[in-house]
Amino acid sequence: VVDAVAEHRDHFPRVLVQGEQPELVAEYTHARHERTDTVGPEGNTNSIYVQLAYRLWGKADNWKPYIRAERLDVDDDDPLLGDLGLDYEGVVAGVRWDFSRYAALKAEVRSEEFDDRPRETSFWMQIAFVFDPRSRRAEIRNSSQLRQVSAVDFR
Q1: What is the rounded CA–CA span in Å between residue 103 and residue 9?
Q2: Cα gap 104→106, rounded to integer Å
């Protein structure tokens, strides 16, 4: 629970760049929080991530290794988020395996530092399912590849 009354304003520059072969995804956001109940400090929140991935070719074209760097910086004076200890830095390396037209399995190693705590390393796996509204119902109904319709994170 945050005891400060604050106004949230997104000040874009929000930049998203995405391409394929190699895939490059980058996003930056900036938000400003100002107190509305009294005169007091203002705070800024900045976040950025950059991911580089490359889909392999030939018989391995259903594999995509990737690496991502992430950062979240919240001012200590931020009246909305400053007391929550949300500062974060992380590096992620993983691989995505598209084992069907409708599903993918991701495995990744994460090296992360949360606020002022020591850096942690963890292994994550995720299975994700895609729903393509352009697909014909009969094709989906008869597909032996589509058995479950939910996403599960194994952390």
Answers
A1: 37
A2: 7
Alpha carbon 120 to chain centroid, angstroms: 18
**Distance from C-alpha of 31 to C-alpha of 38, rounded to nearest angstrom:** 20
| C-alpha angle 31-34-36 in degrees, rounded to nearest 5 | 140
- How far, in Å, CA of 140 to CA of 131, rounded? 9
Bridge partners, 111 (sequence order)? 91, 121
Alpha helices in the chain (DSSP H): 137-141
CA distance 50 to 54: 14
Q: Please tell me the total number of residues recorded for the chain in this structure.
A: 155
What's the N-to-C CA distance of the chain in angstroms? 26
What is the C-alpha to C-alpha distance for residues 84 and 1, in angstroms, rounded to an integer?
9
In the 8-state DSSP scheme, what is residue 79?
A: T
Q: What is the pLDDT of residues 7-43, one digit of tens each?
A: 555 554 445 556 567 888 888 888 888 777 777 778 8
> Confidence class of residue 113 from pLDDT cuts 50, 70 and 90?
very high
